[in-house]
Every structure is written in structure tokens, then in C-alpha cells.
DNA sequence: CGCAGGGTTTACAGCGCTAGAAATCTGCTC
DNA sequence: GAGCAGATTTCTAGCGCTGTAAACCCTGCG
């Protein structure tokens, strides 16, 4: 049988509660006692029983992660990170998919009221500020582009990240730059891109802003195809607000005979964990996902403790990852035949 | 406060244990009582507290999934499926990475003995039959190519799947076929491919069998580069034992000026959830991962119940997914310039 | 030298559920 | 109509842990 608190207590010659106190880092424990207990724990290889702990503490040990879709590598990867981060807080993560539908997102928000979970991490796409009335006091933290005034948020500075992406394109000598993404100017990434162009005395003409109805490869391919059919002069580079879009854009470009990056450079965003055997490998912006996951869990714990925790919006870092798709010279030699 | 068993009991006018009996499907419950209880559960929206249940039942509610690496999309996707399947059995999945190292795999096997988990799903790469002595009575099920006599196994028929892949290449008119994968003939996929070639009066000459030390894009790229440098006449098609290898192979081919599938068709294996915006999209074999996950959990539950369960090796289905990389005519038009 | 006052430790009552054993209720036989 | 077997339900004791409150033990001061 695996050792229990009582076994540790007996071995250390103290009471059960003292062992519990040591484990939970309660104040007022003499160094001597602490050492005795720690030694006993070590010798017995004791590990607390989470079921019992959660039961006694009245928590369920479960948090929910709400994402649009799990087969989007960005969210799959985020989920993995969150699972790891949550484990440290003895939480396990129940993953729910919203398919980006408003109804599903509202439903999740409503579930906040049944006390079946200890907290929720939500990556909303269609939620509005006013929807948050649905919310109960349950610990909640939002991820993604949108920030809500009344709820904790963890994310990167999308505008700044997009700016550095465009900056990179400019630095590699491209001036005429198209932007793929966002059906509105609410899109921080588009905003950041546009601002950077403007700061360099350039513009984002309507023809070079390719709106999309989604962010997958298919959407990117369609948007670029539409552009290619429009007869507008080609851009020297394309900034896509997601890697998926970029993959589709590259496909469309190549199907039309354009070489990437030789004819057109393409930049993505997200650093989805695709195989680097892609051709060309994709230059992108890598949000610090591990940090996002860690801080999301930290936010939940903070809220769990306090009765009326103050709202915190946290900005985590991102990295520019230049790869082949924006290289000055492409890796693909002239084709035979 | 969320409803407890006692609340349901009060509402239905029966004892707590009766409600518990209904929930756990115990025999000897009158239809009338069952209906009363079910109604009460419904009205109150009762859901059992898993912590309490697990505590009382003496299980931990945790199973371990041991995979080589989680950033391999195949395993990420498998993990997701397993998490879903395990949820139905009130288990949550703790994911452990072995990096394909024998030591790490043995360590996991050893953990089987501390009763900290209810079961283990293992996808071993380097384990030997004899290592299983390490194993305790804990429910264990293996995934992957290797079958062990003494342990439950769930997987596809790799040889048959590889056979159908090669068959597909033959049917699209390719005769000279190379195989990338396996540093030994233990590899069922290589065996299946070779057998199919032989059955068609063809051979797998040593020059066309490209062994690899791993199964990622990098390994595929290196193997194909080495071949291209060898001066051997080109094959018309390449069958790779994983999609990742295939991505690398395609990259190497294209960097050398070969078009896929026009000059060389490439076939993968696994159907990793890559973006279909790849160019060309990858023809592959898709194992029924959902079924694998479901059956793995079922195996664990079966073993949990019995004291000396008989060993079951289960074969699940796979599908041939033809895409662009093996099409008769390629999607890439002649390049401009 | 006694006692206040703090730091430390212990006792004990649950958290919500399940597993026996015990109690009760049927319907049936004689 | 009593007696009995089997079906059905209730009683009771934990599962291993934490929170509260009370008990303990030491200083240091008067």
C-alpha cells in the first residue's frame, strides 16, 4: 500500500496534522520538526493523495480550457503547455472546443456558475464585453487578442509583434507589403502592421489588405487566389496573421508559379509546431506559449485565493523567428526541365 | 452549493446508498425506485464528485500515457484522443515523454509498481520482451509496432497498411519504388512494403532501401540527400514509414530540382494533422486513432476489473488517404522564369 | 519563581462517496 | 395466517486529507 500521512507521521514521531502543515508550508514550524518530517517523507516516498486533498479542500481539481479547435496546432500546443502548468497546481485540464461559435462560448461562460470546476481558461473569438454578465465569481482568465476590462488576461502584445514582423520584411528589402487577415480593424495584428508601414512612409492600400473569413490554410489559399486573379500588381512580401494562413498563401503563390521567398516573401504568426521539413520553412512570430500557460494558471490560483481579486492584464513576450520564407535568397534552385 | 448524494436522496425519498446503487448500476433495484432517483438526479442536475468517488474506491483517477515526444504531431493527436476517451472512464491522463530512450521507458515501467496511478498506456520504442519482468499487476496496454506476448496491445496491422500504401503507388503506375525507414527488418512497415513489391515480381534492392536513425523531417531529408548524392538511378516513388520522414524527403527532392509527384511520388504514413495547405498535400495511411484511444482505455478498464485478465491483442483499422503527393499528375505547373 | 504571551503542535470533525453487513419488505408456501 | 427465502433498501464505517480550535511548551518579564 502506498504510504499515507499517518505513516509519515508515525515515522517522524509527530501528529498527522504537523506533517500536513509541513507539506502545505504553514508558518510556525520549527526547523527541527520540519527536517524530521521532510526526512520521513523522503524515506517513505510519500506523495499526497490528490483525491483526498481535493475533497477536503472542497475543490474539484479540474479547470476547463476553452479553445476554438484542438486540431489547430497552435491550440494543441497551447493545451499541452497548459496541462503541464496546471499539473503543478494539482489541476487537470478538461479541454472544450467552441469551434469559434458564440453560442458555445456563452455556454462555457454559463458553466462557470455550476461549481463543477475550479476555474476556466478561455480563448474567445466572438465574446462581447457585455456577455461577461453571465459570469460568476469563478476564477477566469482570458487568452487571445481581445482584452476584457473585468477579466484577467494573458497574452502577447499583438500590435507590437505584428510591427516587428513587418519591420523584418522591410529590413530584408521588401517595400510593397500585403497583409492577410482580419475582417475588421479590431484585429490588433493588422493594426500593428499598418502602423509600422505608415511609420516608414508606406501605406496599406485596400488592394493589398486581404481580408479572410477564417484563419486556416484554406482561407489563406482562397484569399491569395482571389488577389492573384484581380490583376493588381504583386507585392514583394505578404504578412499573414497566422501561420496557417501563410501556408495557404504560399501554396496559392506556388501554384501560380511564384517562388517563395524569391518572388514573394511570406511571413506567418504563431510559430505552430510544424515540421521544419516544410519548404520553405516559415518565418514567424513565436509567442511565449509556455509563459502564457504558466501565467494563466498563476492567475487562476491568485483568484482562487482572494475574494475580490483585482483584475490583471499581463503581457508576455514574443520572438521573431526568421526562417526561409523571408530569406533574402530562396533555398529553391531553378527547377530542372 | 452543488448538489450532493444526500440532496438527491432526500428529493427522491430514499437513502443515500440507494442513489449510489442506481448511479453505479447495481442489481436489485426496483424500476420504480430507479425512476424516482433518476428523476431527482435530473432535476437537481446532480453530478458525482470525482474526488470523493476516487477516494472511496481507492483509485487515483490518473492514468499515464508514455510517448516518445509530444511535439510529434502523431503523438499530440493521439494524446488528445486518449484524453477524451479516458474522460469517459473518469480518468485523467498524465502525459510523460520518453524521448525514445530505453532508460526512460524502463523508468515508466518501474513506476507501475508504486500505486500512484490506475493504469498506463505506453508507446515503447526500445523496450524488450524481457523488460516486462519489471512490470507489476497494474493495468497496462501497449501501442505501436511492437507486440509483447504478456501485455495487452492495440494497434493497426502495420504490414498490411504498408502493403496497401505500396499497392497504391503501384496502381498509380510507379514500379521503381524506394522505401525510407527502419534500421532493421523488425520494422513491420518495411516488411509489408517489401512483401508487396515481391508479390508483384519486384524487388527492394539495397540501394533503394534508405535506412534512417530517426523518423523526423531532418532524418528524411538527410537520407534522401545521401541517396541523391550516391548516383543511383532515381526511383519513381518513395514510401516513407512516417509522414515526417516524407516531408523531409520531399524537401530534399525539391531542393535537388525534382518535382513531386511529377518526377517522384512520395507516400507517408500516420496522417499527422498537418495543414492541408502544404504543397503537395501528403498521401498517407491514416490509422484510426480514435479507435486506438478508445480501445486502450477499454483495455485498462477490463484489466482494472479482473484479477488475472487474459492478454488481448487488438487490431484496429486504417485508411489509405490519397492526396497530391502521389497523384498521377502534379498540381504544380511549370515554374515561370 | 510564577505567569503571561507567543510560537508550535495536536485532537477532532468533516469533505462526498462507496462497500459491506444489517434491516426491512416483498411474495409465496404450507 | 405464520414462516421463510429472496429482493430491496438502509446503516455505518471508513477512504486520506485539511481547517478550526484547543492544548502544549517554551521564553522573558515582573
UniProtKB/TrEMBL annotation, chains A, B:
Gene3D superfamilies: 3.40.50.2300, lambda repressor-like DNA-binding domains (1.10.260.40). One of its GO terms (molecular function) is DNA-binding transcription factor activity. It comes from the Bacteria. CDD domains: HTH_LacI, PBP1_LacI_sugar_binding-like. Residues 3-57 form the HTH lacI-type domain. It holds the Pfam family Peripla_BP_3. PANTHER family: HTH-TYPE TRANSCRIPTIONAL REGULATOR GALS, LACI-RELATED TRANSCRIPTIONAL REPRESSOR. This is LacI family transcriptional regulator. It comes from Desertihabitans brevis.
Amino acid at each position: 500500500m502506498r504510504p499515507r500521512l499517518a505513516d509519515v507521521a508515525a515515522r517522524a514521531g509527530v501528529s498527522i496534522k504537523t506533517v500536513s502543515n509541513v507539506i502545505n508550508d504553514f508558518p510556525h514550524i520549527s526547523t527541527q520538526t520540519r527536517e524530521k518530517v521532510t526526512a520521513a517523507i523522503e524515506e517513505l516516498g510519500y506523495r499526497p493523495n490528490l483525491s483526498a486533498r481535493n475533497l477536503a479542500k472542497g475543490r474539484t481539481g479540474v479547470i476547463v480550457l476553452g479553445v476554438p479547435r484542438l486540431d489547430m496546432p497552435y491550440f494543441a500546443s497551447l493545451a499541452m503547455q497548459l496541462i503541464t502548468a496546471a499539473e503543478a497546481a494539482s489541476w487537470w485540464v478538461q479541454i472544450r472546443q467552441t469551434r469559434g461559435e458564440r453560442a458555445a462560448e456563452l455556454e462555457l461562460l454559463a458553466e462557470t456558475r455550476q461549481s463543477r470546476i475550479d476555474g476556466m481558461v478561455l480563448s474567445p473569438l466572438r465574446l462581447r464585453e457585455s456577455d461577461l454578465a453571465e459570469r460568476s465569481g469563478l476564477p477566469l482568465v482570458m487568452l487571445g487578442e481581445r482584452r476584457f476590462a473585468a477579466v484577467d488576461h494573458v497574452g502577447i502584445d499583438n500590435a507590437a509583434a505584428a510591427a516587428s514582423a513587418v519591420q523584418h520584411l522591410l529590413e530584408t528589402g521588401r517595400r510593397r507589403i500585403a497583409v492577410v487577415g482580419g475582417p475588421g480593424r479590431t484585429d490588433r495584428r493588422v493594426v500593428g502592421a499598418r502602423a509600422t508601414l505608415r511609420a516608414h512612409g508606406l501605406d496599406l492600400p485596400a488592394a493589398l489588405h486581404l481580408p479572410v473569413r477564417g484563419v486556416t490554410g484554406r482561407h489563406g489559399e482562397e484569399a491569395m487566389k482571389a488577389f492573384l486573379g484581380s490583376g493588381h500588381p504583386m507585392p514583394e512580401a505578404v504578412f499573414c496573421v497566422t501561420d496557417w494562413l501563410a501556408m495557404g498563401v504560399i501554396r496559392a503563390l506556388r501554384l501560380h508559379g511564384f517562388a517563395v521567398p524569391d518572388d514573394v516573401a511570406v511571413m506567418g504568426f504563431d510559430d505552430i509546431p510544424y515540421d521544419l521539413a516544410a519548404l520553405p520553412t516559415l518565418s514567424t512570430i513565436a509567442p511565449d506559449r509556455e509563459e502564457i500557460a504558466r501565467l494563466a494558471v498563476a492567475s487562476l490560483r491568485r483568484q482562487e485565493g482572494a475574494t475580490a481579486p483585482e483584475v490583471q492584464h499581463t503581457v508576455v513576450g514574443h520572438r521573431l523567428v526568421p526562417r526561409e520564407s523571408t530569406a533574402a535568397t530562396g533555398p529553391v534552385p531553378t527547377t530542372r526541365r
